[in-house]
Specification:
Length: 320
């Protein structure tokens, strides 16, 4: 068996120019794991909160055997719901040499608190403003059917925890490269949109899925208008997606998912910020849940498309 494995590795090596590889297959890293290592979830309390947040960290497969290497970081909102999907996607794409190894960090409510804990995201992801729904008929429909009592809008406090407290705290423990991606879906997408204009230097890339971008009476669009009045540049790579079937759900229409997403794409395209790279996709036949893994995979493949076609591509070719 050992001879068989050695023969396979030798065959693979025929097509590889080692000095040019930015992301060699894990088989070429002695001692590397076959997949990422998901560490036990921690509970960390931010300065502005009287409760803990769950933080789940997944380290790259080669992390333990490459002590001098730093890794890009993917920050995932809604830890108990989304982190495992992102980790699985990164494992597959790294295995296929479509992206570099990365550290994945999920932040959210402790899973043990159930949906009650997840519900806090409504306050934590809401920008300053009034109410919950998108403006106009959307707000009227929600008020008549599912009236929300007043609640705190804590996006500023959550972003301060995520960027100013948690990032340096974990950066002192783990080997971060100077490359940070934020992933947010649904209300998390709204928070990502708000962060784009209020903390524009915090993330190099953003994956925004099915965002409730028009919620809180267009708060993100108002933040964009304020940003545009003072700035011409926004050097961030952005991937935005939503499911075509989301228009068939009453509550998602109240949140203006499809209209808010397309308005946001349109706004950014027409604004044409210097340094911004924007890619968008509406996925036919997908709903609010089934579209999430497709957006994550397509976004990461898009971000690293040039590397994947060059130095990441290490599949063996026919010997000349």
């Amino acid at each position: 068996m050992r001879k068989f494995i050695s023969a396979i590795l030798a065959l693979l090596a025929l097509s590889i120019a080692a000095p040019s590889l930015a992301n060699p297959q894990l088989a070429y890293i002695p001692g590397a794991r076959a997949n990422m290592e998901i560490l036990p979830t921690e509970r960390i309390r931010g300065n502005a909160f009287d409760y803990d947040h769950a933080v789940t960290i997944a380290l790259p497969a080669s992390y333990g055997v490459q002590p001098d290497k730093t890794y890009p970081v993917i920050w995932v909102l809604d830890d108990p719901l989304m982190t495992r999907t992102v980790v699985a996607t990164v494992d597959l794409l790294v295995g296929g040499n479509m992206m570099p190894e990365s550290i994945v960090i999920g932040v959210g409510s402790p899973a043990e608190e159930g949906l009650a804990g997840v519900g806090r995201r409504m306050a934590e992801f809401s920008p300053p403003g009034e109410g919950f729904a998108a403006p106009g008929l959307n707000a009227e429909a929600m008020a008549s059917a599912v009236p929300f009592p007043p609640y705190p809008h804590r996006a500023e406090e959550f972003l301060a925890f995520l960027i100013d407290e948690l990032r340096p705290q974990l950066g002192a423990r783990y080997r971060f490269a100077d490359s940070h991606t934020l992933h947010g879906h649904s209300l998390g997408g709204m928070l990502a949109g708000y962060a784009l204009f209020t903390r524009p230097d915090a993330f190099d890339r953003m994956i925004i899925g099915s965002p409730a971008m028009a919620n809180v009476d267009d708060a993100v669009f108002k933040a964009e208008e304020a940003f545009a009045a003072q700035n011409d540049a926004l050097p961030v790579e952005i991937y935005i997606g939503a499911g075509g079937n989301e228009g068939n759900n009453w509550f998602l229409n109240v949140g203006g998912i499809l209209t808010g997403t397309t308005r946001f794409i349109e706004r950014l395209q027409l604004r044409g910020y210097e340094g911004m790279e924007l890619q968008s996709q509406l996925y036919t036949g997908e709903n609010h849940y089934t579209v999430a893994p497709r957006i994550i995979s397509d976004a990461l493949r898009h971000f690293y498309r040039e590397e994947a076609s060059g130095s990441f591509s290490t599949w063996p070719k026919r010997p000349e």
